[in-house]
Design goal:
alpha/beta, TIM Barrel, eight-stranded mixed sheet, two-stranded parallel sheet
């Protein structure tokens, strides 16, 4: 993890302490990010403390049976281990679309690069833990480069289908 997170407003310091499974839970109001195993094992202790708590999910985890529990997390960090494995995209769409998750959804891993930023954003991600070789300024510019989309998604982009429908209606008038 780089220590900084790209968000729509720019590069921000990561406010979350990435807590190892065997590390003591800080009693202070420190924001912490824990593994799913730690989230499930120590849920009472994590909820009893001050500070925000996020959970890191590997991309093989089925979010359907745990979505109600995950709704309590302030942050869900989904892992993209490589370009050939896009399961975290599906996790994000399920969390946002089906289960209405409204907390921060962060993408992390080897495949979080400029070329994927728009697709990540369209699936509901609002924070990106960029690889060290990625230029945050170029990644931010990429977020603003697209203004029309073919499929509906989590973002507010107008779809080609809606645009065509509106044009057809205007031709009929």
């Amino acid at each position: 993890m780089s220590g900084s997170i790209l968000m729509r407003v720019g590069l921000q310091p990561d406010p979350y302490l990435h807590l190892a499974d065997d590390a003591a839970i800080p009693a202070s109001n420190t924001d912490i990010l824990v593994s799913l195993a730690r989230w499930q094992t120590d849920s009472a202790a994590l909820r009893a403390r001050q500070g925000r708590v996020g959970v890191r999910l590997d991309n093989h985890v089925d979010v359907v049976p745990i979505a109600a529990d995950l709704a309590r997390a302030d942050l869900i960090c989904l892992v993209f281990p490589g370009f050939a494995d896009g399961r975290a995209y599906s996790q994000a769409r399920l969390l946002r679309d089906r289960f209405g998750y409204r907390g921060q959804l962060r993408a992390t891993g080897a495949a979080v690069v400029r070329d994927q930023i728009v697709a990540l954003h369209r699936c509901g991600f609002d924070a990106y833990d960029l690889r060290a070789d990625q230029d945050p300024v170029a990644c931010l510019a990429q977020l603003d480069a697209l203004d029309l989309a073919y499929q509906p998604a989590q973002d507010a982009l107008e779809s080609v289908r809606r645009l065509r429908r509106r044009a057809a209606v205007q031709l009929q008038d």
